[in-house]
Amino acid sequence: MNQKKHVLMLGVRIVLVFLAAFSILVFTVYVVFSKNFQSMLTDYTMQLIGSMVDQGVISVENELNSSKEALEDFAGSFEVPSDIEQIEFPENFNASNMLRLVYVSERGTVSSDGRELDVRERQDIRKAYTGESCLYGPYFNEEKEYVMCYSAPVYKNGRVAGVLSMEKDGYYFSNLIKNLTYANTGESYIINAEGTDIAVSNQDHISWVNDCYNARLVLREEEDAEARSVMELEEKGLSGESGVGTYYWDDGLCYLAYAPIPSVHWVLLAGIREEELISMMKSTFITSLAEGPILQMCLIVFFIMMSLISYWIISSAKKNAAIHQKLNIIANYDTLTGTKNRNSYHTAIDTFDGQSYHSFGCIYTDVNGLHEINNRLGHQAGDLMLETVADKLVEAFQKGEVYRIGGDEFVVLCQDMEKQDVYDYINQVRQDLMLKGYEISIGVEWRDKEIDIKSMVTLAEKAMQRDKEHFYKENGKERQMRTLNQAIEQMVLEKQDADTFLSVLSPEFKGVYFVDLASDTIRHLFIPSYFEEMLKESGDKFSKAMVLYAEQIVKPEFRKDFIEFCDYQNLEIQLNSSSSTEYSYQRMDGSWLTLRILKFKNYKPQTQETLWIFEVNDNENTM
User: Fold this and answer.
1) CA 355 – CA 346 distance, rounded (Å)
2) Which end of the chain is more exposed for a tag (fewer CB within 10 A), N or C?
3) How far apart are CA 348 and CA 456, in angstroms?
């Protein structure tokens, strides 16, 4: 009996020792591994958040720069009327999230939406009058709108005549960063140079923006530990630093990544609460320990969890690599053309080693007429032009690197290519583009010794400038206008619904033509068949066709006055005294028409382009 009791007690002791050893093992593994796991998870999470912040900075910079460049392009072509009340804003200029366009001059302010508010003393307006484009906001204006202002000077006769300002929805920056969040408690926000919150990713905290929360102002009124910990990190970002830190908020520790937005002296910050990181670690680890009642099962589960964690880490690393790859593409490649961008170009220049190549070529190209195409056909047509040029360069120089370094400028770096091949390829690119109606200016520099890339780029650019000057001197403007005219006609006659267009136009108009008085040539938007025959008979001379029209169509009692009205010399005198003139007459079939002739945009001594509109009078619709 005592022997059995002794064996039983021994078994109990072994079990207790085993359980104690197991408990110590589990506790030791838990303490050691949980700390390491938490540290690893924290470091990895903040690296990921830092990458997200960098991506957010790029998104905000792209919005600021693209809106500013679009407004500068528009301001460069904006025509200032003599009377400010005659300003008409184009309907086709429509930037994303735009509220209105505002033109400011010394005589007052005109808004595209009719808003009457004098903004001449606004900071960005005064600065733009000095000739510098600038940004202002976002801020709450007098009408309690939250707006971001982009302002650019408008020149007339070589001086600043006024300022063109584009006001956009300031809350759009919150939309840009709304996806920059992590887990459940993570969020991001932007502060301006004064430390005021101007955008938040979480719409539940939009009051931070509406109430203009500012940690500096809070500390001026009363010492606050939470506000001070936030302000210290924000100050680092405002001083131009990027990094990760911690601060206290709602009685908890938070991790915060920050990076400056340099062009506007803003800072983007994103973070997550510590308790969520710890909760993620504990739930994963405790679950793994509870999988089995014995040490062997615990160890099996432990190794399984280690495998899962390793898989999670590897998977997360792959996702992080994908994010970095996307960020690399955003940072180093042009989103429109797919070529390398200006950042990649400067990196290539700064790290260039001329001794690594037997020969080296540099091609500097500039796209001719981009500004005119953007103004006349829209930015979509201009983008298509740039994409076509980039595709041809990439196709021709597969062994080289193509960079888009400006709005319409490309640089091709050719490693170890023969000189003749470089010239042959770029000349073929020029020929291919000419067939598509596009023109480029080219500068080439090739060397097989004393390879200094910076001097080569400078010489190639100068050669391109000479080529560009020669192009515009010889035939650049004429060829651009011809290409644009053909493109406009093709858009009207082919790309639009011609049947619908004619059915709407023909009841009210009998003919619409662009006529160059200097060359006696015509571009038509709407032409009846009988007048087309008259043009053929007159050898495409519009003045002769009009005489035939008067003899065949106009009633005799109006014929003499009609011919005199259409005489180019008389017409030029009338148009010089007025921007338009008109004459009403009766046709042989009894219908009444009014011929209105207006100066067109390019009316000048070399190209006296006019718009001739034959319009039905007294609601007469018979041909």
Assistant:
1) 19
2) N
3) 14
